[in-house]
């Protein structure tokens, strides 16, 4: 019985397999670019152990398992073989160059060719927005969504690369960031007030690979509403962009300026998520103000964390299961996000 999974901790095998397979053909952030120097680094993506290594101008991504006797390659180091960089296994010194090609087997008798089976699978990697992104499929379904404020010098930016993983799925994390009807309940006094719990009038549409949502609302004055003091609520417009399925950019425009919350989530696995945040503002831009803004962002994060981690099933259920009871029109953006996930084959079963 599918519904039994509502009370069990573990989703069905089918739901987990669907999530892992459905999420493969997308770019996922796995590490801050600044955290990858000349040493290889182990990461996990969709349940798979991977090793990242800088080789010349490129970032190479392989399974973190040597083709010889399966030692962990991230315990090795980058060396030079025939004038080219290669990742050397710590166990018997096999070395793997760009594209995963096995470039050296020290134990191979003279004149014998390196067997093709020694080569590793190389996954696609790129650097953007200060992060390293990996795609486990040959082809990514969508390109990375735009982030105009990232390269705009008018914006002061703060990064928050969470060291601690969230105990949730990446899709629940994105949905929790897209959800605005929780503001008065979880962020009372900061993002809303329980005196006005009525949801705003959402407009929702698709733009290429992005789900876009726009609405007007009022929020208490503060750091994220133009930095204003005083007591009067601030009128502002939210425009939210979800880069399907794992990136979200919330743009808050108020008379005081623009505040942007950008999140890229890494689906470490179906129940483990690592969050990479960037907060940008074009007001109150003095660098010494960053600590105050970081503190506020971290505070809001701590308010959301226990709620999002408490949600079951771990993975978003499909609509046909009728597990959820979304209320229109307030929950319309969430419905649209989930429908798109189903279409992409990421949500398949309970
Ligand atoms: S296990 Fe890697 S070289 Fe032997
Ligand atoms: Fe929240």
Automatic annotation (TrEMBL):
Q: Does the keyword Transferase apply?
A: yes
Going by the entry's taxonomy, the superkingdom of the source organism is recorded as Bacteria
**What's a Pfam family in this record?**
Rieske
Q: Name one GO molecular function term.
A: metal ion binding
Record keywords: 2Fe-2S, Dioxygenase, Iron, Iron-sulfur, Metal-binding, Methyltransferase, Monooxygenase, Oxidoreductase, Transferase
Q: Which residues are in the Rieske domain?
A: 27-134
* UniProt KW Protein biosynthesis keyword: no
Identify the InterPro entries for this entry.
Cholesterol_7-desaturase, Rieske_2Fe-2S, Rieske_2Fe-2S_sf, VanA_C_cat
Q: Which GO terms describe its biological process?
A: methylation
Question: What protein am I looking at?
Answer: Aromatic ring-hydroxylating dioxygenase subunit alpha
Q: Which organism does this sequence originate in?
A: Pseudooceanicola antarcticus
């Amino acid at each position: 019985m599918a519904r039994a999974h509502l009370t069990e901790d573990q989703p069905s095998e089918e739901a987990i397999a669907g999530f892992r397979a459905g999420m493969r053909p997308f770019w996922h952030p796995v590490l801050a670019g600044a955290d990858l120097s000349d040493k290889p680094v182990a990461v996990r993506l969709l349940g798979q152990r991977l090793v990242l290594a800088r080789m010349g101008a490129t970032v190479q991504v392989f399974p973190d398992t040597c083709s010889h006797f399966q030692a962990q390659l991230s315990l090795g180091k980058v060396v030079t073989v025939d004038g080219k960089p290669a990742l050397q296994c710590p166990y018997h010194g096999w070395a793997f160059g760009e594209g995963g090609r096995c470039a050296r087997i020290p134990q191979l008798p003279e004149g014998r060719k390196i067997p093709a089976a020694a080569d590793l699978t190389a996954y696609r990697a790129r650097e953007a927005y200060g992060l390293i992104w990996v795609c486990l499929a040959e082809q990514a379904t969508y390109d990375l969504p735009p982030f105009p404020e990232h390269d705009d010098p008018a914006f002061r930016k703060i990064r928050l690369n969470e060291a601690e993983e969230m105990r949730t799925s990446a899709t629940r994390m994105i949905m929790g960031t897209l959800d605005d009807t929780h503001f008065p309940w979880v962020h009372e006094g900061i993002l809303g007030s329980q005196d006005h719990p009525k949801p705003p009038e959402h407009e929702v549409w698709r733009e290429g690979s992005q789900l876009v949502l726009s609405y007007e609302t009022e929020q208490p004055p503060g750091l994220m509403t133009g930095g204003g003091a005083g007591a009067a609520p601030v009128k502002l417009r939210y425009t939210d962009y979800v880069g399907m399925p794992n990136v979200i950019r919330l743009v808050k425009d108020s008379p005081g300026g623009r505040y942007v919350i950008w999140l890229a989530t890494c689906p470490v696995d179906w129940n483990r998520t690592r969050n990479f945040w960037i907060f940008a503002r074009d007001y109150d831009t003095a660098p010494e103000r960053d600590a105050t803004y970081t503190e506020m962002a971290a505070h809001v994060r701590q308010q959301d964390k226990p709620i999002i981690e408490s949600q079951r099933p771990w993975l978003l259920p499909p609509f046909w299961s009728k597990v959820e009871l979304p209320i229109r029109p307030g929950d319309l953006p969430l419905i649209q996000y989930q429908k798109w996930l189903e279409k992409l084959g990421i949500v398949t079963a309970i």
